[in-house]
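Recap from last week: sequence in, structure out.
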Amino acid sequence: MPLEHPDGWQGDSSMTVVEQPPTRGTPLLELLSGFIVELRDAGLPVSLTENLDAMEAVTHIPIDDREAFKYALGATLVKNHTHWRAFEVVFEVYFSIRGPEYMISSDTESSGEGESGDGLEQQGNTPSGGGGGMASLSPEDLAEMLFMALMKGDQAMLRALARQAVIRYAGMEPGRPVGGTYYLYRTLRNLDLDGVLERLMTASREDATGDYTVLEERLERDEYRDRIEQLKQEIESEIRRRLVADRGAEAMARTLRKPLPEDVDFMHASREEMANLRRALYPLTRKLAARLARKRKHGRRGPLDFRSTIRHSLSYGGVPAEPKFRFPKPSKPEIMVVADISGSVAAFARFTLHLLYAISNQFSKVRSFVFIDGLDEVTRFLEGVEDIGEAVHRVNSEADVVWVDGHSDYGHAFGVFWERYGRDIGSKTTVLILGDARNNYHASQAWILKEVEHKARKVFWLNPEPKAYWDTGDSILGEYANYCDGTYEVRNLRQLESFVERLV
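Predicted structure tokens:
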């Protein structure tokens, strides 16, 4: 029957009622708010609109459907695939031990997997909690059950065994100031997963109807390795759940927080972070090249084009209603890069060369010079190559950059640069100097930089050290800065991207 509106409007009862997002004060809303704040603290750009989209998305997905819940939030909050790992870490911290009490609907039933509110107390404060009927098993029985679960690929059993393994072997105690890596190591050491892998392979060969080929054995081994890796992830998640229950989500999020690839410090990056940096560099270069090209195309307008204005005014009866301008042809700067490749600043120089050569079509010419206490031009290694990484490796191994002892000597390197290549600097040349200006107390030869500044279009100095370290110890950046158009702190990809945009 028709529905009556207070103002007299009548509608049809078949109309769809729009489900409202969670109201203020609900546990889920408070949890999501803390989650989004932590994402922003971790560096992820989450707008208000995306926040609202996430709240709308989770009205349709129960929180105990963990994977679907995670991907729904990820689809609305993560815009860059390099940020996914940081998102997953925060998600695990905030939602790993949350259960049906966080459902939007109050009559939602428990998922039955021990992740409800009762499970939180159990996992956090009871050493033997969560063991169920496995608590009475001997270590040998537990190992046999683990072997069978891995053989069959039983995910539910592996999850239960991972929980029991943490209870028995991790030695977790409430309030103990120990990191999750320690607990993970203790648990895995007691499980002897390398031995389990070999036992799985032996059993698989015995069950086979014939001898394995090399390919078949490799595929079988890879399959069992994947299952063991899943077990390790389950153990790690269980340890994380218990730490969150003991210490709180915010404290654990701060402990586990890792910088995004674009925020990783060049000077202190780990091997894994360096690999992530290299992966993040390629999409960044494409985005930056497109942005620079667009910037050139829509640059400043030139002087009034009187002839074109008069010609166009004929359609308005001779009234110059729409003035026309001459748009100057955009000029591409020539870049000369002079990079210190000694010690820890080498990583910074490497990534800068990667970036500049990836967008080299935005410049008329790019010439590169590297130095320690000697200097060499390395443009030949970088031109016309497909793998810039290999070219940069050749730069590090083949360039003639050692003069005396292989310790940084900016003064001598600048002297060689001016003597050999100073005549090539012109009014269209932008000179980039990359280094920390730590000169090991040698002569600065700052007058050379003064001469370079007089000839060049611009001179910029990029320093991977924090500004607080400049002009401390053997750093003499202030002396060189007098003859630069700008000195910039460039410690990560985000700062490097920001600077390159200024070049055009």
